[in-house]
Amino acid sequence: MYLRIWLAIALALLATIGTPKASNARSAQDKTLLALTGEWLYVEDRTKGRAIEKQGPPMSVKFVLRVEKNAVVWVRPRGDERMTLDGSTIKKEKNNGSFTRYRGKWKDGALEYTLETVRKSDNSRALLIQRKFRFTSDGLLVSVAVNGGKSSVALYRHPKDIALPSPAKATIADMTWLADAWVGKRRSRSIEERWSPPLGGAMLGVSRTVSRGKMVAFEYLRIVERKGGLVYIAQPGGRRPTQFVLTKLDKNRAVFVNPRHDYPQRIVYELSKKGALTASIGFAKGGRPRSFVFKREKKRLPLDK
Known about the structure:
By secondary structure, this protein is mainly beta. It is built from two helices and 20 strands. A hairpin with a 6-residue loop joins strand 12 (189-195) and strand 13 (202-211).
């Protein structure tokens, strides 16, 4: 996909040879701008020298760009941001005694975008964020620097152009070790997952989080057989299902991945030799996963008759 678009941009550049320079530049810019349009999803951190556990997106995991005349619009829930192409500044007042200046510029085949927050009291800078969007044959490279610090660089792609993982061969019987009632605590929260035994090519699960005596979250879960492998299906809060493909299965460890999802992209269950169950979520590549440890729920004694 990206190689095809990149070749189209290169051919557009070749086609402009012999035409006026201003026309050349404008044509190349227009082609590249069109390639920026759409939804972009974080794929991997490409910051040089960054430890794998510290890797992650330098900005939103997912964002949407829309091309308009003389600008690229960053579509945001709290209000779109218009990134100009000519270096002109857009100023927005804030309610906390400051204002923000936005400035975009097209330079050397990339969109450079600066956000600066300034205190009204003394006209001093409170925050400076510098972003650069550059389309490559591998996807969209995004670099972000905060307050003049070192830039963080990451690769983004359109979700439909992110390769899906190869599924591992397995049957639902291979997940028998997960079947049980699992409970754990984190600070003031109690979390439980209950998994039914494998039957009919599927396991059903439900998760519940309770804080200070009230349920604050729940999730419907399934693991089902599909085309010789297993698929993990999650519905947090009963919302639309998201599917994760089993990519690796050891005796007591299962890895499910969906790189086209914003977060999590990777779910891992692992049963220790001592009988504790660890559930981890994170990105498909790099980063420090978030983990939670469960223990088997103590069997309740039958009521005295």
